[in-house]
Amino acid sequence: MEEIIRPNPDCKGMTSSNSRQPPDPLFILRGSRSAITCLHYQNTGSGRLFSGCQEGEVYIWDLKTRRIKEMFDAHTKSSVLWIKSFECNKLITQGRDGFIKIWHNKNSKWNILEMYKCSSLVFCSSILFAHEGINYIAIPSNTASKVDIISVDSSQVVISLQPMESKQGMCMCLKYAGTSNNKQLLLIGYESGELQLWNIFSKTLMDQLSIFPESIMCMDFSEKYLKGMCGSVGNKLVTFKVADDKLIMDKTVEVVNEGFNNITIRGDDKLIVTCGWDKSIRLFSLKSLKPLAVLKYHKESVQCCTFTSDNILICGSKDKLISLWEIYS
Questions:
Q1: Which pTM value belongs to this model?
Q2: What three-state secondary structure class fits 12?
Q3: What's the maximum distance between 2 C-alpha atoms anywhere in the chain?
């Protein structure tokens, strides 16, 4: 049975026994010309942070000097929805202009290698995953409810995943769910509030679960614990589990203010971070869903977050600022 947890969402301190107060930001990155829409930390020793913005530019930050190292126009006048680095000096960006672009850095210049068409109607970010040594990109298709799987090697759509019925509406979020019994699993959240679990390469819908009465706006998933969290336009956060290729509703947390833009599970699978329309950053224990802190600094909606390799939390906001936070273990 679903468990409902109603924490005090206005708590300003940790809910641990020593009641520590939440920290102030370590520092703030300034210089973006428009709202921050996505973040990506390149965990390859370079310590580079990529940020996408509402006007289509990608900024590359040096976190040691706290300054912009490079900037290029990736999706002119269209929000950058997703950034992902891979292989050697390659970068993938997705824009609200309906294009996914693969870039290569040569002689300190970013050049386009490939372009793919995707949906320009939604804010659904694509995902990159690997199978048997081949990189694939799962992208929201121009056809409602459909997700296309593109082979980066061949630049071709190799698989399309689409429910038999079209009642789900548009794809809102995607998350690779790892391997189970030699099945490569993909989670898809829809406009209808339904969550679906797919076996990618057999094109089989494994299970589906109604999470919200409205759109699933964001989602993350722990492959270690086979547990995920979804957020919506409302004030509830819902966790779910995957067991025996089935989706199981787990717990619900209610907070005061409505609307979530992003959910990120830290790499050690201990912490969940949510980014809210109410300018707040909320921290929860993944295991217990215990609320740990509410971080407040930004003047407008917090739109995205990521972690560095040493667990520094990085958050981007509509106020054009990027905040960095040192979070307890």
A1: 0.92
A2: coil
A3: 57
Separation CA 232–CA 235 (nearest Å): 7
DSSP string for 259-302:
-EEEEEE-TTSSEEEEEETTSEEEEEETTT--EEEEEE--SS-E
Task: Return the C-alpha torsion angle 7, 13, 16, 20, nearest 10.
Answer: 180
- Residue 92 carries which side chain, given as an amino acid letter? I
Residue 281 · residue 273 · CB < 8 Å: yes
d(CA 28, CA 30): 6
Instruction: Collapse the DSSP code of 196 into the 3-class scheme (helix H, G, I; strand E, B; otherwise coil) and give the result.
Output: strand
Does position 179 have pLDDT exceeding 50, yes or no?
yes
d(C-alpha 115, C-alpha 95), whole Å: 11
DSSP letter assigned to residue 89: T
Interatomic CA distance for residues 152 and 101, integer angstroms: 11
Distance, in Å, from the CA atom of 125 to the CA atom of 161, rounded to the nearest integer, reads 16
Edge-first strand listing for the sheet containing 246-254: 3-5, 246-254, 236-243, 227-232, 216-222
The helix (H) or strand (E) run that includes residue 27 is strand 27-29
Q: How far is CA 301 from CA 275, 318, 320, in A?
A: 8, 6, 10
Mean of pLDDT values over 211-232: 97
Mean pLDDT of 241-246: 95
